[in-house]
Design goal:
Elements (H helix, E strand, L loop, with lengths): L5 E7 L6 H17 L4 E5 L6 H4 L6 E6 L22 H7 L3 E7 L25 E3 L12 E5 L2 H4 L3 H16 L5 E2 L2
Parallel strand pairs: 1-3, 1-6, 2-6, 2-7, 3-4, 4-5
Length: about 180
């Protein structure tokens, strides 16, 4: 079996729920962003645009996903048979074995296991397919090759802290003179 050769840091700012988590996110990821020479950095509104990083990497990857949602699949809204969506991008890549492992840095109030669909014989997704942690410090345990940041406006529209986190991360990355692909 292939081993992941690259690690992607994925930040969905819907993880930020208030000024405290906004501050924690910036304090934790700022040194990583400053001190890492990323192969590629992409900012987008939608998480499915992570394909602009993952699809360009030849070998399977490992993903560290700071996100309020697991993005494996939501059997009522984003099942895998509906195609590649922001709510199932990770499940898609896990099934295709393009992502061989993932750590999900979730919130304590994140819904962790509404993704099993045992009625679907084509679903191979199970509870323990990803490592789920609730400590943002976990992000420091990895070395990263690419950075993806998304806003998920449908989840952060009424959350000014999440909206500001996206803008702050964009300004931060630019202040370090890093090349960015900015998608709408």
């Amino acid at each position: 079996m292939l081993e992941p050769t690259k690690t992607v840091l994925s930040i969905d700012v819907d993880w930020v729920s208030d000024p405290r988590t906004f501050k924690n996110l910036l304090e934790t990821v700022c040194p990583i962003i400053k001190n890492t020479s990323f192969d590629k950095i992409v900012f987008s509104q939608y998480h499915k645009d992570i394909r602009h990083i993952i699809d360009e990497i030849k070998d399977p990857v490992y993903v560290v996903n700071i996100d309020h949602h697991h993005d494996i699949q939501y059997k009522d809204t984003d099942p895998l048979h509906r195609g590649f969506l922001s709510g199932n991008w990770l499940g898609h890549y896990l099934i295709k074995q393009k992502v061989l492992g993932a750590t999900w840095i979730a919130n304590y109030n994140s819904l962790t296991n509404a993704f099993q669909n045992f009625a679907d014989p084509n679903s191979i997704l199970i509870d323990d397919i990803i490592k789920i942690v609730y400590d943002l410090e976990e992000v420091k345990k990895h070395k990263y090759d690419s950075l993806f940041v998304c806003q998920s406006p449908h989840h952060s529209i009424n959350n000014m802290s999440a909206f500001c986190a996206y803008e702050a991360l964009l300004v931060l990355v630019r202040s370090f003179d890093k090349e960015i692909t900015l998608l709408s």
